[in-house]
Amino acid sequence: MTVPQIDRRQALKLFAALGAAGFAAACASDESADNEPQLSDDPVRIGLVAPQTGPLKVIGDDLVNGFQLYLQLNQNRLGGHPVQLVTADEGADAKSAKLAVDSLLQQGALALTGMANSAALAGVRDTIEGATVPLIATNGVPGSLQGVLYIWSASFVDSDPSQALGGYLAGAVNRSQRVAMVAPSDDAGRDAADKFRQTFGATDTRLIETFWTEATVAPGKDFFRPTLAQLNTSNANVVYAFYTGPAAVEFVRQYRSEGLKATIYAPGGFTEGTALEDMGEEAAGIFTAMNYSADLNNAANRLFATAYQREHDLLPSASAMASYDAAQVLDRAIRLCGGSPTPQQVNLMLGRVGQIDSPRGAWQFNQPRTPQQRWYLRQVRPDGQVLSNVLLSELATLG
Predict the structure, then answer these.
(1) Residue of 133, 76, 139 whose CA lies nearest to 108
(2) 165: part of which helix (H) or strand (E)?
(3) Strands 156-157 and 140-141, how do they pair?
(4) Average pLDDT of each block of 10 consecutive residues along the chain (399 residues)?
(5) Which residues on neighbouring strands pair with residue 287, listed in sequence order?
(6) Which protein family is it in (predicted)?
(7) What is the pLDDT of residue 14?
(8) CB under 8 Å to 15, separation ≥6 — which residues?
(9) Closest by alpha carbon to 303, among 32, 73, 3, 128?
(10) Separation of alpha carbons 345 and 80, rounded Å
(11) Which CATH superfamily does the domain covering 160-290+378-398 fall into?
(12) SS3 7
């Protein structure tokens, strides 16, 4: 299914000329005045967990920018209350993430949001559940995070893009072609590869081999070469790769320098944000599956993408969008609480916020507290004078 899209840079210039305030009025929901939040002078404190140092800082910047943009467009209020936003440095591992969460809980946060490192969520699970303070994750979350009461996701389950790609490629790859997988050997990489294999067809003879690498967020300049040499001899026509950030950048650089020609398909984080800029021309032609593209043509995205580009002089990533939506979800939940909300009341109302009018398209929380949402196929192509993740079609609705 082809989805509506816009030429981003031309259209966003037009939208920016009209102004975000005008779009905010035009894109307002159909809620009646009776449903508007009661304004209060009592502030609410929201804790934002995001990497401010280390290799994941680029994702952390997106998380901060997305949440702050929603506040800017809504008079720095959530549910009618002025917001005290407190940010803590997530760092690069589970230990530093837990320290950040502990710090924000000690400061009396009503709710938490953020978390760039999917693997770190398992390390803070008991802390969040024990504190009974909701956390809305805004990057990938592991599929193993089951049975939680206070951890929600405004982004996606790590294996969702792999599921969307596996189903798509099962029908798109010719019978004579060969498909190989390359992924890190950590829990997230194995879950994603398993989901891809399951949806593509575990016994399908086109799926030839999985090549595993060590899990690292900052690989060296020769890190992938032994694996790529094996991949090259496999004669694969299509390669599924599961990496993000600096690891994705190094994979593409070494892949191109080794002269491999197989078409790369990957989850959307592979070419998100500054990773795409760092890859440069070497990213051309890569296909990804993601729950968001900056050229989606809907009213909520016109407001969001226009305001984001004007504020930061770059197109928003899916992580920035998810953080923006986390603020929107908290706005609704706090509004439903009324009066002086408690963390437990906010958590209860998160289950009642209903459908979200999001830049990604409408979505809602499912029973496991993760999004039910559409997934899209994108390709890195020229968009004006630069390469961008250009929207091609809708893949599936998952969740």
Answers:
(1) 133
(2) helix 160-172
(3) parallel
(4) 50 44 40 58 96 90 97 97 98 94 98 94 95 97 91 95 97 96 92 95 95 92 96 96 93 97 96 90 97 95 97 93 98 95 98 97 96 97 88 95
(5) 265, 379
(6) Belongs to the leucine-binding protein family.
(7) 43
(8) 23, 302, 305, 306
(9) 73
(10) 16
(11) Response regulator (3.40.50.2300)
(12) coil
- The DSSP result for 46-113, as a single string, is EEEEE--SSTTHHHHHHHHHHHHHHHHHTTTEETTEEEEEEEEE--SSHHHHHHHHHHHHHTT-SEEE
∠ Cα 214 153 286 (to 5°): 50
Which residues of the chain does CATH 3.40.50.2300 include? 44-155+295-365, 160-290+378-398
Which pLDDT belongs to residue 144? 86
Mapped onto helix, strand or coil, the DSSP state of residue 384 is coil
Overall residue count recorded for the chain in this entry: 399
Q: pTM score, two decimals? A: 0.88
Burial class for 171, CB neighbours closer than 10 Å (0-12, 13-18, 19+): exposed
The contacts found for 18-21 with CB under 8 angstroms, 24 or more apart, are 20/73, 20/303, 20/306, 20/307, 20/310
